[in-house]
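ok trying this again, last paste got cut off
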Amino acid sequence: LRQIADAVKGGIRSAGGTPFEINTIGMCDGIAMGHIGMKYSLPSRELIADSVEAMAQAQGFDAMVFIPNCDKIIPGMLMAAVRLNIPSIFVSGGPMLAGRRGGRPGEKLDVNTLFTAVGRVKTGEMSEEELAELEHAACPGCGSCAGMFTANTMNCLTEALGMSLPGSGTIPAVEGRRIALARETGRQVMELLKANVCPRDIVTRKAVQNAFMVDMALGGSTNSVLHLIAIANEAGMKFPLDDINKISKGTPHLCKISPSGENRIEDLDLAGGIPAVMKEIEPLLNKGVKRVSGKTIGREIAKARVLDSEVIRPFTRPYSKTGGLTILFGNLAPEGAVVKSAAVSPKMVKHTGKARVFDSEEKATEAILGGKIKPGNVVVIRYEGPKGGPGMREMLGPTSIIIGMGLGESVALITDGRFSGATKGAAIGHVSPEAASRGPIAALKDGDTIVIDITKNRLDVDLTDKEMKVRLAKLPEFEPKIKSGYLLRYAEKVTSAGNGAVFES
């Protein structure tokens, strides 16, 4: 990012501007995982948006170039840009290259490889020595984690939204093209300033629809639903989950990138990047929207073409006719839940199983590692939502262990928490209302029959409405887990995942 910032400043100076550089906080979810730090990850999004607002207003900047690269920084900065509504443009630091080990030319590694490897070590399929070898090879250099995880999803969607120049989402962090793009971004912000083109001119309902279409074609992170809803909210728009389902049903799934497949972001870039994906779904897009490039979508992607039809499949030969993300509703999720259907085994698209209920991620992980979860079970992790966690931790640990232990085609997991973009399997998150708000998930008991049907957008429990109400009425008042500091204030203000986990207005 140091090099990117220097290049941006050079571009600004060359176009007659005077650059000033400020920073915001930036959490690495990989480091925050597995302890209380993950409770701060999603809440950091609001801190980032607020801190950018405070500095921009206090210092009176005329325009802004945002340089994000990790999970919550991208949406936090997009929220701030829309809120401030001064000429703004984004350029990311770029994705990491896939990791490789000597003697294995076809192998591609990323951080998700390590998480699933933990489960393989537990079952004896892999040695701790090989795990250590993977650890040293999986992340070979700078950049956002190499798969279609949350950071890369959001960087790609920033490009699809029209808030960054072509290539920002996919050019690898280590390439010279990334530096050239940063310099051009610095020059372009001066053009936006001259024309007084502001974020709310670009982030319109039609542009957000475009971003969701690209998201469905890519099979992006489930977290993108939270973040795009929150960004739209800053622009004064409501995006109900049912509207997202309609987009999913009309958009083919064209790319299988880790964790859904073996390709990485570098492969997507070589195949033509986001312009090529947009070219493939061009008939669906709203083409008249403004973009920071100053061009229409039609002009911007006019010369784009798919250079590898296995990385970006043709519109007529998709992986599925519907998008890579699916919203589920039912008596267990009346306000919706989200699943990365692109990463679900065909054997688990429909699943009925007995619930194993846990009131925290730690208790669930202990049971999974202890061999207490059997094929056919549905693991339920509750009181991990925005309010209940607080902070809506991502459940990459338990889902990865399930996959690594060979249970990915027989065990489902549902939670009012969320998942990493690296999560794969029948992992259903964002269950709303959450348990802390007395949502139906709070009424579940061990042995209840859970019915999942992703093909019909359904998530249900085999209980009558009367039984559900009786159980919920007997629950004690929710007691916050954190009783001081930022997380307490966050829990008091945050709304449900179905609303993007934004603060109450």
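PB: full thing came through this time. The first strand starts at residue 64 and ends at 66.
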